Structure formats: C-alpha cells, structure tokens
Fold:
Amino acid sequence: MAKYVGAIDQGTTSTRFMIFDHAGQVVGIDQKEHEQIYPKPGWVEHDPMEVWAATQSVIADALEKEHIDPKELAAVGVTNQRETTVVWDKNTGVPVYNAIVWQDTRTDLICNELAKVGGPDRLRAKVGLPLATYFSGPKIKWILDNVPGAREKAEKGELYFGNMDTWVIWNVTGGVNGGVHVTDVSNASRTMLMNLETLDWDEEILKLMDIPRSMLPDIKASSEVYGTAVGALEGIPVSGDLGDQQAALFGQTCFSAGEAKNTYGTGCFMLLNTGTVPVPSKNGLLTTLGYKIGSEPAVYALEGSIAITGALVQWLRDNLGLIEKSADIESLANTVEDNGGIYFVPAFSGLFAPYWKSDARGVIVGMTRYVNKGHIARAALEATAYQTREVLEAMNKDSGVPLTALKVDGGMVFNDTLMQFQSDTLGVPVIRPKVAETTALGAAYAAGLAVGFWDKVEDLRANWGVDKTWEPIMDSAKSAILFDGWLEAVKRTFGWIKQ
Structure:
C-alpha cells in the first residue's frame, strides 16, 4: 500500500525531490544545484538538459538514501520556478535555446513596443499582469524572433513551449516517447497568454505576440492525473502541478479568502487568497491563479513579487566573496547594531511589485567611511523586510483587509535576525510553520488529493502547525523613520537604464 507522495521542486538555483508521509512530514530529500548562466548584463539562463539530468539524479538518490521503493509512492507532484521559458523540438527533445529565466530582462524592448498602444497595463484586464520582462510570453517571442530557424519550426508545429513544470512533466512522462505536454492554471497565468476568465489561451494575445498556439501545452487543473511516470518513478501517477509560489500558498493551507503567505527564496513572493473571483489590483500587484482542484472552481490570488531577496545573499557570497556560505550572512549582520545609515536596494532585474520599473538598477546609498561589511550584510537582510512591507501595504489597499499575521516559508525563514526585523517592520506577528519548505509540500498535497491519498483540502489543515512566532519589539515610530529612509533609497534606483 502506498505510504508516501513525492514532489519534484524545480527551483531557480537547484532541483529537489522530497518525499512526504500522510501527516505532511518530510521522510526523504535530495537536492542538486545547477549553473546560473549570465551571457550579458541583465540576461539569465539555465541549461534545460542540465536541469533534467539533475531532476533524474535527485529522484533516484532520495529514494535510495531512505530505502523507499517507488511503489510506496501514491503519486508525484511538480512545482517550479515560474515564468522561466523553455522552447524545444518535440521530435528530438532538444531545446532550441537555453531556458530564459524569470529574472532575465532582455525582453525589455519587446515589452516597450507592446506598451506603445495602451500602456504597460494594456493586457492587465485579461491576464492580471502588466507588460513586464518577468513573464513568459515575451520570452517565447524573443526566442522565435532571435534563434535561427525557430519561428519556421514553430509554424510547422515542431516546437513545444513550456515553463519548467511543463518541461519536467513532459520528460518524466516519457519525453519523445509519449510525454504529456501540459501545464496547470497557476503556471499558465504567469505567461501573459492565458485569459483569467476562460482559463484558456487568449487568441488575440497570441496573435499580438505572434506565437503559434500549437506550441502551447494543454491547461489543466493543479490537481488531476496528467500521465504516468517512466524511469525511476515507473508507473507512478503524475498528478499535481503548481507554480512555486502558488504551491507554497497551498502548502501553507491558505484555503480561505483573506489568508496569506510570504515565501523567502531567490526572490520574495507574497500571495493572498481572494477566493473564486479575480480581484483587479490598483496598487501594483498581480492578479493570478492560486490553484484549481479537479473540477472545482479555480481559486484566485493577489501577488506581490520581489525579484531579489535570497539572490542578494548569494551575490554577496559569489560575486563579492563577503561570506563563505549563505547562512553566514546572519552572523556577519550581527557584528553591528544597525545598518550604519545605509540602504541596499537590489534592483538587479529592475523593480517588481509595486513599482514595475524595468529601468531601475541596484544601489547602495548613505555610504560613509564608518560603514563596514557587517553594515552591508545587515542592509541586505533589511532590504528583504522593507520590500515585503511595500508589498503588504499594497495588498492591504487592494483587498481592504489589513493582515493581522504573516505565515512565512522558504530558506530565509531560519534567519532569526531577518524574521525579527520583518515583524518589527510590519508591526504584526510573523509565523513559521513546522514544515518550512511548503513549496514542495503544496505540490505533494495537490498530487495526493488527485489520487485519494488525502480526501479533501480541509483535511490538510490538520497537518499545519506552528514552529516559531516572532512578535514586533521595535518602537513603531523608529520603524516608520527607517522605512521612510528605504522609500527615499528606492527612488534613487529609478530611470538608471535609458531607453
């Protein structure tokens, strides 16, 4: 009898395979990083074949380490870095170009051209998104326009597009030998090509971006059986698919309208469940799909997306050599009492929510001879908390419901200094669950629900438990002054790239 559910978590910097029991506890895990490719300033790529090799490796190693027979898995789900775009030859399985990562800004000119008619919110009423380099649609167009022979092949029906969920599921279910070409509503809502109302590809937008519909995967629910795995997971139903942030919303059991979570990873993403009706944003947030379970109505969300949070710590580690490993950032930050008067705005890929300024670039402001590397480390952590506050304030305005507590997850939530400062900055409790890696858990939940491993969504709430809560301790007046300084620093990033 099946005792577990597996989840492939294909992230921006690594791929993991996690195995969960019925109580939602982790019983097995393996993880492997992949290369970050930077061909030009603002360009970020991944090698899809390297990612697929890593996926196969972590599945096999996680099962082997814990001596788990694949037959003990009831199902497997997939969660993924969203918007990262792969186009491949469906007959050979070979990508025509590297995956263009969500952080990549090369489609700036395409977005600007599209915005000449109707402005940056030209498509927002249909898709809930501004015209921005973040999303998949312009990335597909760039590949078709710039990779020799790609458009001709696409028009002959020889190419497939997918975000990383689609690429992984296609390969896991057989690839050129019968792999299924699917995505779910949450990932499709990040392409700028799916109509929020119909939950189908929008023909007008496809025509506008000159993208053949034959390239696009079938849009499915987030929880249903898509196909059967081959290889190490031979015979296991593949039955869950959620973009990473929606998966975290699901794993945090935010099933009721008004419940929210914030995930601290490469970027930072706050999602608020708004129920079965899409809520348009007037304050720079995204209207997106939360999830869809089988034939039940789709659940929508408001999202605040921040491009660079954990990636800033990696930058301090890899580019500046300020720390040896990411976890060292906390001890370095704690060598000083405060930020020494500096602010670090990491607009490396422009500014996402609530500004959506692709012409912004990163700055450190307030520098004096007094400042040392401890202050830079502290300012880097504080940047994550300040950006989160900006998003939360926009969310409060859009929803009309002030948040009373914030559920958090992701790798950075084990940084006590950051989490305390986050609570101080927001003025509300910050709550970390017992299973902090809720992205993979959400994908596992979706997969397990589809095959009856769990009966219904509400049953999953019993698995959620509090691990730690941080309460605000900073004087609110001091917090307000610090935040005002941040807002001034953000203004200094505007308009750096001249169009």
The chain has a mean pLDDT of 93. The chain is about 30% helix and 20% strand. The two ends are 60 Å apart (CA to CA).
